[in-house]
Amino acid sequence: MPKTKIIKVKQVNLKAPGPIRILCGSVAAYWLSGIINPGFVAIAVMLLLFFPVFFLDFLFPQPPSKPLEAQNETEEIIEEEPLE
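User: That's the sequence. What structure does it adopt?
Assistant: Structure tokens below.
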């Protein structure tokens, strides 16, 4: 009898940062650019460009997608009983 391997997938829900945290991080990066390194301006701009993405995700939430193994639930394993 062939052995079947069962893979259990643990679903992890990640919480995205809120819009206020993104704006504060961007302001902090811009502030650090004047003190430490001007390269922090690029980080501040990238954080500001991510703001609409997280804001739209907040407005239009979608359920997380199923793992690939769970999408193929139509296939069933049928074991045949031996003939006596």
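The mean pLDDT is 75.
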